[in-house]
Amino acid sequence: MQRTTDRSLMSVGLRCRCPRCGEGRLFDGFITLKPRCEACGLDFSFADPADGPAFFIMMTMAFPVTAFGIWLELAYDPPLWLHAVVTLPLLLLACVPIIRPMKGLFIASQYIHKAEEGRFAVPEVPVVGATTRD
């Protein structure tokens, strides 16, 4: 099976498809990762996007939605319940729909760039009194 290229990273990631074959789906539910690809059998246990997609989405979308809330407050001085009815759904609509494609993009990026969990390297300790022979 041929690996995907960096050019198709966006394609397979945003479509939530297998990063190796580009055919199998990544998710069982909304954001629950499947154990393996149904098309090529790639084991998805390597993928651990953790909270990365949610963090980037929240940090990106918080600025325009907060700016809107501040503008709404300064321009119209609405009651608190109006903020709850308008601003909160706007925040949810700005964040929730893009979580899945963003998580797919992170998983595809981990596969293509062979990302692994960080590990500490154990230094080799030279044996005292050992001689080297050429």
From TrEMBL:
Transmembrane parts of this sequence: 54-74, 80-99
A family per Pfam: DUF983
InterPro entries documented for this protein: DUF983
Domain of life assignment: Bacteria
Sorted UniProt keywords: Membrane, Transmembrane, Transmembrane helix
Claim: Membrane is one of the keywords in the record: yes
Protein name: DUF983 domain-containing protein
Native species: Methylobacterium hispanicum
